[in-house]
Every structure is written in structure tokens, then in C-alpha cells.
Design a protein that fits this description.
72% helix, 279 residues
């Protein structure tokens, strides 16, 4: 089966949505599920369940490309010799430690979450709740001085606590980056360090989640399904490059409150659409 032009446009749009929302703390999964309510892909439910997760690999590749110098734990001195960047190497152990809580919960409750929580009203509630939290926490943070200012300052304990907050992102509408950033801000991590650690944490988390969904799907792709997935990933990668650069520049001068207000407005709009029967 070949994809028609309308389906290709849908995939491109979904790739754009993924690239924009994966890194901004506004919930990529929530946005993808909501978009699907209006411009649903003409694919099986099993494929779409996998697609909405695996498309995020494109966004992850963008992070790896942009942060390669910070993420790669080796430094080449010449063609025949390299040295380990100790701080980066240790940081990856912290990231692995932080991944444990959400990995365990995700594997145990994946089917339950898919069946019971992937609903517009749940997404709306989480958008509003965490939007309010962003505003409250940012106002509270104005009176505080961060105790952890850089990635290398993050301890194993701090990393694990941030990873525990990532469990909350298993509920659609929460936002993986939003949950980890809120958690980091609460325990005194600076805004920039919180965002950068979220990028690091996203790499093993989303690669693991994608592999889990691919195994669950069975790797039994039709030609059209494989094309749809690859196209979505490419678009997500290209858009993510620009969004990540924007976010890192933005948070050096601004707080996250604007994203909190956006979440509240979007959540309220979803509830209104549900009341009138559109969703």
C-alpha cells in the first residue's frame, strides 16, 4: 500500500508537532494524541501506538548531534590516542541511575496506561495541573539561589530524584521534559542545568522506550508504514534542531512561566471541546 499525498502531509505535520513539543515542557505525547483526534493517520491502532513513541528518535538524534561534544565521553588527542572525559563518563552513570524508576514503571504499566489514560480529559487535566505548577514554582524560585548550577554539580542523589519525577511523564499531558525540569527546579538545580540534564536523560529513556515499542509492535512493517515512520523521524529531527537552540537561548534570559500559561489555555480549550462533543 502506498501513502497518498494527504497521509504524507499528516505525517509531516505530526513530525513538526513532535519536533516542537518534545523539548518544550508542553507534552509531546499529549499533543500527538490530540492532533490524531483531528487528523488521524489511516493506519492501524497498533502502528500508531508505536509511531507516537518511536518518532521521538528523530528528536533524540537532534540532541545527540547538538550536544555531541558534551555527551561523548572520549576526547581524541591525536589519530592514535584518546582520553576519557571523567566528568562526562561519570555523568552518564548518573543518567543511567536516573533512568531506573521510569524504566521499571513504564515496563510494568505500559498496557494499563495505553488503555486507561490516553484520553483527552486526562491530557487536559495534566496540562493544566503542571501549567499551574510551573507558574507557582517559578515565582517561588525567584526568592531562591540554585545550589546546583552545572551538569557536573549534579550528584547521584539529585539525578535519581529527577529520574523519579520522570515517572510522572508516563501520564499523557504531563511532559517528560516538564516533569524532570519541575523536579530539578524544586530541589535547587538551575534552569540551564535542569534543561541540559533533561536532554541527557532523554537519550537512554527514549531509545529504551522506542525499542520496547518496536519489539511490542514486532518489526512487521509494510513499506508504507516504514516510510511513514522514517519520514516522521526526519521531520522531527530537523525541527528539533531549531527548537533546542531556541530553548537553550530562551531560558538564559526567561523563565518557564510562558509554557505554564500555554498549558493552562490548551488544557481549558480541550475541556471545552470535550464538553461540546468535538473530542
Amino acid at each position: 500500500m502506498l501513502l497518498n499525498f494527504a497521509e504524507i502531509l499528516k505525517i509531516i505535520f505530526l513530525g513538526i508537532v513532535e519536533g516542537v513539543t518534545e523539548w518544550l515542557p508542553i507534552s509531546s505525547t499529549g499533543h500527538m494524541l490530540l492532533v490524531d483526534e483531528f487528523i488521524s493517520l489511516n493506519m492501524s491502532d497498533a502502528f500508531k501506538e508505536m509511531f507516537f513513541v518511536v518518532i521521538q528518535l528523530g528528536a533524540i538524534i537532534a540532541v545527540i548531534v547538538l550536544f555531541w561534544n558534551k555527551m561523548f565521553p572520549f576526547q581524541f588527542k591525536d589519530k592514535s590516542r584518546s582520553v576519557i572525559k571523567t566528568d562526562t563518563f561519570i555523568l552518564w552513570f548518573k543518567v543511567a541511575f536516573a533512568c531506573v524508576p521510569s524504566a521499571v514503571m513504564g515496563i510494568l504499566f505500559d498496557d494499563f496506561l495505553e488503555e486507561h489514560l490516553h484520553k483527552p480529559i486526562i491530557i487536559a487535566a495534566m496540562l493544566i495541573i503542571y501549567g499551574i505548577l510551573f507558574i507557582i514554582i517559578e515565582d517561588w524560585n525567584k526568592k531562591r539561589t540554585p545550589v546546583t548550577n552545572t551538569l557536573t554539580d549534579i550528584s547521584f542523589k539529585t539525578a535519581f530524584i529527577i529520574g523519579a519525577f520522570q515517572i510522572l511523564s508516563l501520564i499523557p499531558g504531563t511532559s517528560r521534559s516538564g516533569a524532570t525540569i519541575i523536579g530539578a527546579l524544586l530541589i535547587g538545580v538551575s534552569r540551564v542545568a535542569a534543561a541540559e540534564f533533561t536532554f541527557f536523560l532523554a537519550v537512554p529513556t527514549m531509545i529504551g522506550a522506542s525499542l520496547f515499542k518496536l519489539v511490542k509492535f514486532g518489526f512487521n512493517f509494510t513499506g508504507a508504514e516504514l516510510f511513514a515512520l522514517l519520514l516522521g523521524m526526519v521531520i522531527a529531527f530537523l525541527v528539533s534542531v531549531f527548537v533546542i537552540k531556541f530553548l537553550m537561548s530562551y531560558i538564559k534570559k526567561h523563565d518557564f512561566k510562558v509554557f505554564g500559561w500555554y498549558r493552562i489555555v490548551l488544557g481549558a480549550a480541550i475541556i471545552l471541546l470535550a464538553i461540546v462533543g468535538i473530542l
